[in-house]
Amino acid sequence: MGSFAVILLVLVVAVVVTSLALVEKTAAEGEALVRLKEAQRETAKARAFAETLRRLIRSASPDVARGRDISVLRQMLASAERDADTSLADLPEVRSDLRQTIGETYCDLGLYDDAERLLRAALRERRTLFGEDDPAVAESLFGLAGVHYDRSEYEPALAGFRRALAIQQASLSPEDPRLASTMERLARTLADSGDHHHRMEADALCRDLLTRKRRLHPEDSIEVASTLSILGDIQCDAGRLEEAERTFRNATEIQRGRLGDSTALASTLVGLGRVLLLAGKTEEAESVLRDVLDLRVRLLGERHPALAWPSSLLARLLSEQGRHAEAEVLCRAVVEVQIAGYGEDDLEVAGGLEQLADVLVAQGGRAEARKLYREVIRRRRRDFGRTDSVARECEEKLDAIE
């Protein structure tokens, strides 16, 4: 065979080998593409399933559920939780989203232990998937901080909101509504913590947030109203009652028009009722507080912890008017919902026990009052030591009726 023929044969063999390799590669790529498309379809189905569950779960939120039997809602959430664990085991990102939604809804319903468990699971999963500084991690931190706030655990709540805000400020645009929401919750927690410096920080943060919102939203928007509601509490705590009353009335008018009966409106009405009580406008204060209780029972049911604060304010008003029997009924209801929401031995229950003891003393029920004062002293000293001022006050009340 001549040299030209040899060269030609080599070239032909090379082309054949290359073609076969290309065919095999193309076939492999085609098979891989088919598998990828199948996986994408399955992922899309799983995401659609998860999104359907998320919408169903959010229908259990108080503004939608409107006081339906909480045991039914709890069963629905437990079922969704099981579905997340089994059907989404291979899709941790989708599963963490669903756990986040379930946890938030548990919190809305006042089921704080369940809420914390789900939100911590979502946080762990998201940190593994995305690292420490992702907006999804901030969302889980925000949810957990909300649970701490609702339990009146202000230090961990502040830490969670501050960390979530730091992540969001580094990763989101200044106009992102999630940023404003976290600033607002941080301001609310600062205002309610009882610390003077925290209240000053809350005032500055709230006014800055209000300025931002007024640039982005109309004056009568629900976004502006929610910040006004927090500002009203800050003004009330500072003793600026006339200013606080105007602020609350403004927020209430906006929320009634934009939202109707809602948990947001109920929260603002509690603030208005408190201002009216402190300002000596007792007739209107009683009317507002009774409206709040009616609204919250319709939205949340009869055993939600959110009933405790307006019930306590109304009991105080009735007691000051000498209507001690009515006040006692409310005080016992406060203790009941506090125990249901926080647990039998939680410090939060101590405030309700002290108020009940005060009302019992006014009616001559000293024997039960003694037991209650002693229980308050025990709990306060357990958590704050022997120098706690509330424990000392209860000791003085106890001495007075011995």
Task: Walk me through what this model shows.
The protein is mainly alpha-helical. Among the domains are: 217-300, Serine Threonine Protein Phosphatase 5, Tetratricopeptide repeat (Alpha Horseshoe), CATH 1.25.40.10; 307-402, Serine Threonine Protein Phosphatase 5, Tetratricopeptide repeat (Alpha Horseshoe). Helices cover 83% and strands 0% of the residues. The chain contains 18 helices and no strands. The chain has helices at residues 3-58, 62-65, 70-87, 92-108, 112-130, 135-150, 154-171, 177-192, 196-216, 222-237, 241-258, 263-278, 282-300, 308-320, 324-342, 348-362, 366-384, 389-401. Helix 8 (177-192) packs parallel to helix 10 (222-237), helix 9 packs antiparallel against helix 10 and helix 15 (324-342) runs antiparallel to helix 16. The chain is globular and about 65 Å long.
Enter the CATH topology name of the domain at 307-402: Serine Threonine Protein Phosphatase 5, Tetratricopeptide repeat
What structural class do you assign from the helix and strand content?
Answer: mainly alpha
Q: What share of residues are in beta strands?
A: under 5%
| Sheet with most strands | none
Order of helices and strands: HHHHHHHHHHHHHHHHHH
Q: Which segments are poorly predicted (pLDDT under 50) over 5 or more consecutive residues?
A: 1-17, 19-23, 32-41
Chain-averaged pLDDT = 86
CATH architecture classification of the domain at 307-402: Alpha Horseshoe
* CATH homologous superfamily identity of the domain at 307-402: Tetratricopeptide repeat domain
Instruction: Specify the helix fraction band.
Output: over 70%
How far the N terminus sits from the C terminus, by CA atoms, comes to: 126 Å
Helix run count? 18
**Tell me, what's the shape?**
globular
CATH class of the domain at 307-402, anyone?
Mainly Alpha
Radius of gyration: 29 Å
Number of strands: 0
